[in-house]
Specification:
The chain is α/β, with parallel strands linked by helices. The chain contains ten helices and twelve strands. The protein has a seven-stranded mixed beta sheet, with helices on both faces. The protein has a three-stranded mixed beta sheet with strand order 1-3-4. It starts with 7 loop residues before the first strand and ends with a helix.
Length: 279
């Protein structure tokens, strides 16, 4: 059965994220296109249908795949991945005249590691910019580690704070489903998130309850440390919080790379937009 196409509906905060990635992609491609012998690649792990619908107006606007295809000078290859059959079909229709575009249907956790990352090996003089913008806690830590170990891949990562708070980081963790706990651990990479988020508190009857003590910022800071010390990225600038119209943090936008120049450019772009999304 073929699923019916539905465009993602986005708010202004998602538009800001798209603009940050678009600006960096342009700077990235401009620099790497001048490097003799290098092939540079763009990867979108949760590409969607390539187009979004604005919540405020209903207007259709380009998503990150179309923004990447409009970059000049162009990427040598563009890899678009999505799990939804109708979105993949729409992506193929949008890019049918582009021989530099590869559309993959499937779980990005598998597709990236098995099909896409092997095409961006450092020793083959290939470099990649990868957008990891998951729908909640659907990304696995192993993908992030694989990107870091490649040495050739830079990432923008949506750290889904709101989804974490709704499903896995409850004030009282006793009611969290096993499935959501497993998703949180798979995203984080191990269960160390538990000791960061919770502390034991003695009860009147001599028992112990877990109490949530970590703020959103503390959780994001701990993950930044993991990106550097566990995954092995050499450069991880301070992430910026992306807030919705109610001023609640929807996610933190991370950038991670092995390249100091790339990190400097990303930091400048993210800082420019930080005032638009809160702190």
């Amino acid at each position: 059965m073929v699923s019916q196409l539905q465009f993602d509906r986005i708010g202004y905060w998602s538009q800001i994220k798209l603009e940050i990635v678009r600006e960096y992609a342009h700077a990235y491609s401009t620099i790497l296109a001048k490097q003799p012998g290098l092939t540079h690649v763009y990867v979108d792990a949760f590409a969607g249908a390539g187009v979004h619908e604005l919540k405020a107006t209903g207007e259709l606007v380009p998503g990150s795949p179309l923004n990447a295809l409009a970059v000049e000078p162009p990427f040598k290859e563009v890899h678009l991945i999505d799990l939804d059959q109708s979105r993949v079909r729409h992506l193929k229709e949008l890019t049918s005249d582009r021989k530099d575009v590869f559309v993959h249907e499937g779980d990005c956790n598998t597709v990236l590691v098995q099909k896409v990352f092997p095409r961006i090996r450092y020793e083959d003089y290939r470099r990649g910019l990868c957008l990891l913008d998951p729908y909640g806690l659907s990304l696995r830590w192993e993908v992030i580690v694989a990107a870091a170990k490649m040495r050739s891949i830079e990432i923008f990562l949506n750290f889904p704070m709101m989804d974490m708070n709704r499903n896995a980081l409850w004030t009282n963790p006793s009611g969290i489903s096993t499935e959501d706990l497993e998703r949180m651990t798979a995203f984080w990479g191990d269960e160390s998130w538990r000791t960061i988020v919770y502390r034991g508190q003695l009860t009147l009857d001599g028992g112990e309850d877990l109490v949530k003590v970590a703020t959103n910022r503390e959780v994001a800071t701990a993950f930044r440390k993991r990106l550097r010390e566990v995954a092995g990225f050499g450069e991880v600038p301070e992430p910026i919080p992306i807030r919705n119209s109610k001023n609640a943090i929807v996610y933190y936008l991370f950038f991670a790379s092995q390249n100091a120049t790339g990190a400097k450019i990303a930091r400048q772009i993210m800082k420019k937009y930080a005032n638009h999304v809160g702190s």
